[in-house]
Specification:
15 strands; 402 residues; alpha+beta; single chain
């Protein structure tokens, strides 16, 4: 009888331990899901955008040896004009809930500001600005021969996509957001694909599995451009398949460290440790500006060519098919080209108003981080207002009328 009781007690202890372990595992996932659901709350968004490592699984990138940025303070424009109306720069900064602004002129810091209680040392989420970093890495790998041709189907390097909506889609069409894959990117719709993808990330599931499960196309590949962020994840799958290496290690080795960033940096990852390449890169604002300066200098830092000059030229001009949704912007290989862009004028852009603006003619790079919950209000009209803002700051530093 005592033996039976002893074994029963052991069984209960064992079940209790298993229960505690399961509670811990699922509690961690549920806690991450809760944090994702409150990520954009008005009273949390500013601090959340500087502390994403507390909410998601992450992978660190080493910074390398920091390259100093000299200070050359200059006054920036106080106003800018847009569609015949003049607005105060200070009002725009407040309205867009800007948290950081770093302006480089000829590679030197002309203006630097940190707002809403943030600091220069904060590591800020890039959102879709990260896509342009991946483009730079892709260009390097193309030159090295890891990827043979942009006309190769993505399944040549990511065979797990066979049978999915990406089966047979050329890399070029994925780079230009012209895959034709059906994907709802409405951030305000709880059941949209983009929000389902966010929950996959928060719960530690597989982003590769999510992409491979997409089965529908809205139109044939290459017919029209429609911005779908999962295209960028597929580019990451191609990179990993072509090199046998992780994007975190590759970006660190071939882009981040050679630029001479301050760090620290990290990617958000899924439960398999796969980098969230379409929007999960976190850096200091000065380092976003350093990346922009490298692109302004045609892929060079000093005497070192980091990104092939031909790739910089090709990827930052409007080469995508016309927009299926009537967008007036141009698009390259994961870079935006504003309407009426001068030669050498392009930008990286992320939700909630993250930007790296490059104006080669004026020698100006502008890096912006924001926590603007109203970023979608006004659609393209608001996005174009940002361009007017950037152009005014750029022209003012170049000694030209805004």
């Amino acid at each position: 009888m005592r033996t039976v009781i002893r074994w029963s007690l052991r069984g209960l202890v064992f079940l209790a331990l298993i229960g505690a372990l399961l509670t811990f595992v699922f509690w961690e996932r549920l806690e991450r899901l809760y944090r994702v659901n409150t990520l954009f709350d008005e009273d949390r968004i500013v601090s959340n955008f500087s502390s994403m490592e507390t909410m998601f699984l992450t992978a660190n990138l080493a910074a390398g040896e920091p390259r100093p940025l000299a200070n050359s303070p200059q006054p920036i424009a106080e106003t800018f004009a847009h569609e015949g109306r003049t607005e105060a720069v200070a009002d725009w900064i407040e309205r867009t809930n800007m948290t950081a602004l770093v302006v480089l002129k000829d590679g030197k810091i002309a203006h630097e500001a940190y707002l809403k209680g943030t600091k220069a040392e904060d590591t800020r989420i890039s959102w879709s600005v990260a896509k342009s970093f991946l483009s730079a890495l892709f260009g390097i790998l193309m030159e090295e021969g890891s990827i043979a041709s942009l006309d190769d189907p993505v399944t040549k390097y990511a065979p797990e996509l066979a049978g999915s909506a990406y089966d047979g889609v050329p890399i070029r069409d994925v780079l230009t957001m012209s895959s034709g894959v059906t994907f709802n990117e409405d951030y305000l719709d709880f059941n949209s694909d983009i929000n389902k993808m966010g929950r996959v990330l928060a719960l530690g599931h597989s982003m590769d599995g999510f992409a491979a499960a997409l089965s529908d196309r809205t139109r044939p590949p290459g017919e029209a451009r429609q911005y779908v962020s999962i295209d960028t994840h597929v580019i990451g799958m191609v990179i990993r398949g072509a090199t046998g290496r992780d994007v975190v290690d590759l970006l660190e080795e071939k882009v981040i460290a050679p630029i001479g960033t301050e760090g620290p940096h990290y990617y958000l990852t899924d439960g398999r440790g796969t980098a969230f390449v379409l929007g999960g890169l976190n850096m200091r604002t000065r380092d976003y500006a350093r990346f922009g300066q490298m692109m302004l200098e045609n892929g060079r830092v000093g005497d070192t060519q980091i990104v092939p000059e031909d790739w910089v030229a090709e990827s930052t001009v409007n080469i995508a098919p016309e927009s299926a949704t009537g967008r007036v912007w141009g698009y390259g290989y994961q870079w935006w080209v504003p309407p009426g862009a001068a030669e050498g004028e392009f930008l990286a852009r992320g939700i909630y108003d993250q930007y790296i603006y490059i104006n080669r003619n004026h020698g100006v790079v502008i890096a912006v981080n924001s926590a603007n919950r109203r970023f979608r209000e006004g659609g393209d009209a608001t996005n174009l207002k940002w361009v007017s803002f950037f152009r005014a700051l750029s022209a003012g530093l170049a000694g030209s009328p805004g």
